[in-house]
Design brief:
CATH class of the largest domain: Alpha Beta
Number of strands: 7
Distance between the termini: 65 Å
Radius of gyration: 22 Å
CATH superfamily of the largest domain: Beta-grasp domain
Shape: globular
Number of helices: 6
CATH architecture of the largest domain: Roll
Structural class: alpha+beta
Strand order of the largest sheet: 4-3-7-5-6
CATH topology of the largest domain: Ubiquitin-like (UB roll)
Length: 194
């Protein structure tokens, strides 16, 4: 039976070999630098480690939670260059040139950020395990949509799951942020209203 390079007994030329130049890393730890919450951090980690694993295990930033490990629940949401990212779905080594923001970047001197305060006021968390991911997702959402409707919130926040079912409180918190003139700390750092 002819293979894909043969046609009815006639030998077809092999396709050209593509030359690929990549930096190859083995299973041993490598040194990487991550810009996390405005500070450049040097970390030694295996190239297969996710951003979530490095944030939690190497940098001690435990706000992002490890739940599904499949990019389906949103508990590990962080901002990478201002966009929502499931940190369990990106390798830390691939985030080296990015600006990474975690829930720990919110608030100042132990006080809650206005978005965090809105979550508390609206009773938008029960067990609280998903809350950091929701807050980071909401930070990006409100930057793009500063005066959301309920429908906007339902569509815009659909990538985060709450097993306790606090969605009504989360909606109220985000609606209240659309009405408040006080921007969130992170949005102020980024120069936008939150």
């Amino acid at each position: 039976m002819p293979n894909r390079h043969q046609q009815r007994g006639k030998q077809m030329p092999e396709p050209p070999k593509a030359e690929v130049y990549m930096m190859a890393f083995g299973p041993s730890p490598v040194s990487i630098q991550l810009n996390v919450n405005g500070q450049v951090q040097s970390v030694n980690c295996e190239p297969c480690r996710t951003l979530l694993q490095v944030l939690r295990e190497k940098l001690g930033l435990t706000g992002a939670k490890q739940v599904c490990d499949r990019a389906t629940c949103g508990a590990c949401t962080v901002l990478v260059n201002g966009k929502r990212v499931y940190s369990c779905s990106i390798l830390a080594i691939d985030a080296q040139d990015a600006n990474i923001e975690t829930v720990e970047s919110l608030g100042q001197d132990g006080t809650l950020d206005t978005l965090q305060q809105a979550f508390v006021a609206a009773d938008a968390s029960q067990c609280g395990y998903c809350t950091p991911g929701f807050i980071m997702s909401a930070t990006a959402f409100l930057t793009d949509n500063p005066s959301p409707t309920r429908e906007d919130i339902r569509k815009g926040m659909c990538g985060n799951l709450c097993r306790c079912g606090t969605y009504a409180g989360i909606e109220e918190a985000l609606l209240s942020m659309g009405k408040t003139p006080k921007p969130s700390t992170l949005a102020m750092k980024r120069g936008k209203r939150g």
